[in-house]
C-alpha cells in the first residue's frame, strides 16, 4: 500500500506524529504523547498490599500465641493429671478452632475498617475493641500489647513518687565550672534555646559561652566591656534570643546582639528637671532591667532617680512610659528591682522603704497592688519573681528573708523564710520549671564558710534541700526550663552549671564530652593568589598551597627544627663563650673600666711611651718624612753650662 504524502494525511493520521516535523526536528520521537500515571490507583494498590501483609502478620502472631498456649497447657496437664491430658487437649483444640472461626468472622465483618489501615498490624486488644475511631487512621508502629499496662503502671508510680518528693527533680549530680574572672559574677543570662550563656561581673567584663562550641577547657569565645568602667548589674536575653539587655552602674542601659555588637543605647535624661516624667531618660544609676515576655523589643529599667521606665528598641531617644513609685505619704522612693509578670500585663517593683508595688502595664498613675511593709525599711530588696502560673510572687529581701505572695490576695505573705544572709544588692531567686520549688542563694563573709543554694517547697515552704556551691557567696541563680540545668554566679568569679545526664537536656552535656583541642599552627598563604580559571596556560599562576604541609616538613628536618640553645651561665663550655666577656660591653667593663692603674701624673704616663715612639715612629714622623728639613744641631755644651743657662721655669718640676 502506497504511503500518503504530507498533503494526503487523513483524519486518523492527523492525531499521530507528523513525519515531516520529525524530520525537521531531527529525532523520531517528537510528538508522542507522554505516559500518564494514575496516582490514586497506585496508592490504592499500595494500601491493599499493606493491608494484606498486616493480615498475614496478624494471623501468624495469633497462630504462634495459640501454639504457645497449647504447649503450656499440655505441660501443666501432664504434670498435674497425666491421665486426663487427652481431654484437655481436645478442649483446647476446640477452643482454638472456635477462636479461629470467630477471628475469621470478625475479620470478614471488619473488612471495611481494615481496608483503611496502613502500616504494621494493630494489637489484639485494639483490633477487637477500638476505643477511639480516630485510632483507625494511625500510621506507624504501635507498642506491644503485653507491656502496655505494665509501662502505664510504672509511669503512674514514678509520677506519684516525683509528686511526693520534688527534690528528685533537682539536677545536681554533675557540675562544670566556668572561670569568668576574679571578681563577683553579678549577672547571668541564658538564651531561650539554652545554647549560649552570658556572664557579667564587677570587673566590667561581659563574656559569652557557647555550649555547643566549647570543649572540656570551658573557655569563653568572646569577652568585651560594653559599659567601659561600670559594673555589670543585669544581663538578660530577649524572648526571641537575638538581643541582650545590659544594665550597668551608669544611667544608660544598652542593648547588644548575640555577638556583642551594640544595637541601641538609652538616652540620658536631664537631671535638673524636677518632675522625672518630663525628662526623656534616667538621670541616676540603674539597678536592674527586664524584657517583656511577649512583646518583641520592649524592656524595662529602674533607677536611683525613683522611676521605672519602659523602652522600645526602635525608639532609643525617649522612653515609652514612666512609673513613679511613691510612699503612702506621696514621697519619692527608689525602686531596687523590677520585673514583668509572665503574661506581661503587670509590672512589679520593690522599693527601698520595704514596699512592693504592682502596676498595670497600661496605667502608670496608681499602682494596682501596694504592700507597704513587705520587707524591712532601709534594706534593698534584691529580686522579685513571678511563678510560671502567674499567681504567686517571690521576693528576696535585704533583711535576709524570702517571702511568697499571692497577687490575688495581696494583703499578707503566704509564707516567709528567714536566716538567708545576703550581702549583694542583686541576690536573686527563681522558680523551678514545674513551679514546685523556689531557689535562692546565701552570702558569706570571706573565709567564714561556704555559700549555699537553698531549695524551698512552694506548697509548704519547707527547706527541703541545700547545695554547697563554693567558699564564697552565691549571688545569681538561674534554672532554665528547657535544659533543666541550674546556673549559679558566685562572689569569687566563678559561674557553675549543675546538670543531670538523665534529667537534663543539651547545655553542659554538649561540651563535657568533647576533649580539649590542641592549639594548631596558623595556616597562612604566602602571598595573594589571583584565581583566573579561563586564562591561557602560559599566563595561569600555579595554585597556591598552604604553609601547613611545609611547616610539617620543616618540623621533621633536624636542622630547621633545632631548638636554640639557652645562653651559657657562668664560664664558657663546648666552644661557646661564657656570659662574662661574651659581649663588647662586658669586655670593656672587664678590661678597661676595671683597670686600677694610677694615672695621676700625665707627664710620666706620656713619657712612658717615648722610647718606643723614638725607635719605631709610626704616627707623626712618617707623615713629614719628605717635607721635614734636615736638623741643624747646635754645639754641644757641658752639662754644667746647660744647667746654668737653663731658664728658671724649666728648673721647676711639673
From TrEMBL:
<feature type="region of interest" description="Disordered">
    <location>
        <begin position="47"/>
        <end position="173"/>
    </location>
</feature>
<comment type="similarity">
    <text>Belongs to the WD repeat GAD-1 family.</text>
</comment>
<feature type="repeat" description="WD">
    <location>
        <begin position="279"/>
        <end position="321"/>
    </location>
</feature>
<dbReference type="InterPro" id="IPR036322">
    <property type="entry name" value="WD40_repeat_dom_sf"/>
</dbReference>
<dbReference type="InterPro" id="IPR015943">
    <property type="entry name" value="WD40/YVTN_repeat-like_dom_sf"/>
</dbReference>
<feature type="repeat" description="WD">
    <location>
        <begin position="384"/>
        <end position="408"/>
    </location>
</feature>
<feature type="region of interest" description="Disordered">
    <location>
        <begin position="631"/>
        <end position="654"/>
    </location>
</feature>
<keyword id="KW-0853">WD repeat</keyword>
<keyword id="KW-0007">Acetylation</keyword>
<feature type="compositionally biased region" description="Basic and acidic residues">
    <location>
        <begin position="540"/>
        <end position="565"/>
    </location>
</feature>
<feature type="compositionally biased region" description="Acidic residues">
    <location>
        <begin position="105"/>
        <end position="117"/>
    </location>
</feature>
<dbReference type="InterPro" id="IPR001680">
    <property type="entry name" value="WD40_rpt"/>
</dbReference>
<keyword id="KW-0677">Repeat</keyword>
<feature type="repeat" description="WD">
    <location>
        <begin position="178"/>
        <end position="210"/>
    </location>
</feature>
<feature type="region of interest" description="Disordered">
    <location>
        <begin position="1"/>
        <end position="27"/>
    </location>
</feature>
<keyword id="KW-0597">Phosphoprotein</keyword>
<feature type="compositionally biased region" description="Acidic residues">
    <location>
        <begin position="148"/>
        <end position="165"/>
    </location>
</feature>
<dbReference type="GO" id="GO:0035861">
    <property type="term" value="C:site of double-strand break"/>
</dbReference>
<keyword id="KW-1017">Isopeptide bond</keyword>
<protein>
    <recommendedName>
        <fullName>WD repeat-containing protein 70</fullName>
    </recommendedName>
</protein>
<keyword id="KW-0832">Ubl conjugation</keyword>
<feature type="region of interest" description="Disordered">
    <location>
        <begin position="540"/>
        <end position="579"/>
    </location>
</feature>
<dbReference type="GO" id="GO:0005634">
    <property type="term" value="C:nucleus"/>
</dbReference>
<feature type="compositionally biased region" description="Basic and acidic residues">
    <location>
        <begin position="47"/>
        <end position="78"/>
    </location>
</feature>
<feature type="compositionally biased region" description="Basic and acidic residues">
    <location>
        <begin position="644"/>
        <end position="654"/>
    </location>
</feature>
<dbReference type="Pfam" id="PF00400">
    <property type="entry name" value="WD40"/>
</dbReference>
<dbReference type="InterPro" id="IPR051858">
    <property type="entry name" value="WD_repeat_GAD-1"/>
</dbReference>
<feature type="compositionally biased region" description="Basic and acidic residues">
    <location>
        <begin position="89"/>
        <end position="98"/>
    </location>
</feature>
Amino acid at each position: 500500500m502506497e504511503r500518503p504524502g504530507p498533503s494526503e494525511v487523513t483524519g486518523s493520521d492527523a492525531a499521530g506524529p507528523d513525519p515531516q516535523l520529525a524530520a525537521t526536528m531531527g529525532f523520531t520521537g517528537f510528538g508522542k504523547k507522554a505516559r500518564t500515571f494514575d496516582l490514586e490507583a497506585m496508592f490504592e494498590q499500595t494500601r491493599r498490599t499493606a493491608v494484606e501483609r498486616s493480615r498475614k502478620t496478624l494471623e501468624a502472631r495469633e497462630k504462634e500465641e495459640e501454639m504457645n498456649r497449647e504447649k503450656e497447657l499440655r505441660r501443666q496437664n501432664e504434670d498435674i493429671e497425666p491421665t486426663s491430658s487427652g481431654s484437655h487437649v481436645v478442649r483446647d483444640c476446640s477452643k482454638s478452632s472456635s477462636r479461629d472461626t470467630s477471628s475469621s468472622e470478625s475479620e470478614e465483618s471488619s473488612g471495611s475498617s481494615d481496608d483503611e489501615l496502613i502500616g504494621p498490624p494493630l494489637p489484639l486488644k485494639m483490633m477487637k475493641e477500638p476505643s477511639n475511631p480516630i485510632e483507625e487512621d494511625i500510621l506507624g508502629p504501635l507498642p506491644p500489647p503485653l507491656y502496655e499496662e505494665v509501662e502505664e503502671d510504672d509511669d503512674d508510680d514514678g509520677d506519684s513518687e516525683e509528686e511526693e518528693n520534688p527534690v528528685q527533680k533537682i539536677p545536681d549530680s554533675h557540675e562544670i565550672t566556668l572561670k569568668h574572672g576574679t571578681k563577683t559574677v553579678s549577672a547571668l543570662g541564658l538564651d531561650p534555646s539554652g545554647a549560649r550563656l552570658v556572664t557579667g561581673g564587677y570587673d566590667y567584663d561581659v563574656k559569652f559561652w557557647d555550649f555547643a562550641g566549647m570543649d572540656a577547657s570551658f573557655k569563653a569565645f568572646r569577652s568585651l566591656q560594653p559599659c567601659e568602667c561600670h559594673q555589670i548589674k543585669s544581663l538578660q536575653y530577649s524572648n526571641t534570643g537575638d538581643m541582650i539587655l545590659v544594665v550597668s552602674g551608669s544611667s544608660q542601659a544598652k542593648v547588644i546582639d548575640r555577638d556583642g555588637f551594640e544595637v541601641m543605647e538609652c538616652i540620658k535624661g536631664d537631671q535638673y528637671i524636677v518632675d522625672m516624667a518630663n525628662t526623656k531618660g534616667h538621670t541616676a544609676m540603674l539597678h536592674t532591667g527586664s524584657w517583656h515576655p511577649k512583646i518583641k523589643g520592649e524592656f524595662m529599667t529602674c533607677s536611683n532617680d525613683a522611676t521605672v521606665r519602659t523602652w522600645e528598641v526602635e525608639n532609643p531617644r525617649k522612653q515609652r512610659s514612666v512609673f513613679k513609685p511613691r510612699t503612702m505619704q506621696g514621697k519619692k522612693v527608689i525602686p531596687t528591682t523590677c520585673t514583668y509578670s509572665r503574661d506581661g500585663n503587670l509590672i512589679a517593683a520593690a522599693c527601698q522603704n520595704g514596699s512592693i508595688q504592682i502596676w498595670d502595664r497600661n496605667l502608670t498613675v496608681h499602682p494596682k497592688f501596694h504592700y507597704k511593709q513587705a520587707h524591712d525599711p532601709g534594706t534593698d530588696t534584691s529580686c522579685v519573681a513571678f511563678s510560671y502560673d502567674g499567681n504567686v510572687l517571690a521576693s528576696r529581701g535585704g533583711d535576709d528573708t524570702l517571702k511568697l505572695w499571692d497577687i490575688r490576695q495581696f494583703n499578707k505573705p503566704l509564707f516567709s523564710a528567714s536566716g538567708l544572709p545576703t550581702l549583694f544588692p542583686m541576690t536573686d531567686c527563681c522558680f523551678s520549671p514545674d513551679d514546685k520549688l523556689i531557689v535562692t542563694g546565701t552570702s558569706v563573709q570571706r573565709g567564714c564558710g561556704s555559700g549555699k543554694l537553698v531549695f524551698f517547697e512552694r506548697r509548704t515552704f519547707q527547706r527541703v534541700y541545700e547545695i554547697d556551691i563554693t567558699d564564697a557567696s552565691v549571688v545569681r541563680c538561674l534554672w532554665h526550663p528547657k535544659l533543666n540545668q541550674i546556673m549559679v554566679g558566685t562572689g569569687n568569679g566563678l559561674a557553675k552549671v549543675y546538670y543531670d545526664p538523665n534529667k537534663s537536656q543539651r547545655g553542659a552535656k554538649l561540651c563535657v564530652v568533647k576533649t580539649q583541642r590542641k592549639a594548631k599552627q596558623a595556616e597562612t598563604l604566602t602571598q595573594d593568589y589571583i584565581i583566573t580559571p579561563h586564562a591561557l596556560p602560559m599566563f595561569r599562576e600555579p595554585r597556591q598551597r598552604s604553609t601547613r604541609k611545609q611547616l610539617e616538613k620543616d618540623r621533621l628536618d633536624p636542622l630547621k627544627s633545632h631548638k636554640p640553645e639557652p645562653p651559657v651561665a657562668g664560664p664558657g663550655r663546648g666552644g661557646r663563650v661564657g656570659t662574662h666577656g661574651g659581649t663588647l660591653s662586658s669586655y670593656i667593663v672587664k678590661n678597661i673600666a676595671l683597670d686600677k692603674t694610677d694615672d695621676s701624673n700625665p707627664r710620666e704616663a706620656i713619657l712612658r711611651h717615648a722610647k718606643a715612639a723614638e725607635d719605631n715612629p709610626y704616627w707623626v714622623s712618617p707623615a713629614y718624612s719628605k717635607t721635614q728639613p734636615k736638623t741643624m744641631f747646635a754645639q754641644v755644651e757641658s752639662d754644667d753650662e746647660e744647667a746654668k743657662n737653663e731658664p728658671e721655669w724649666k728648673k721647676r718640676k711639673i
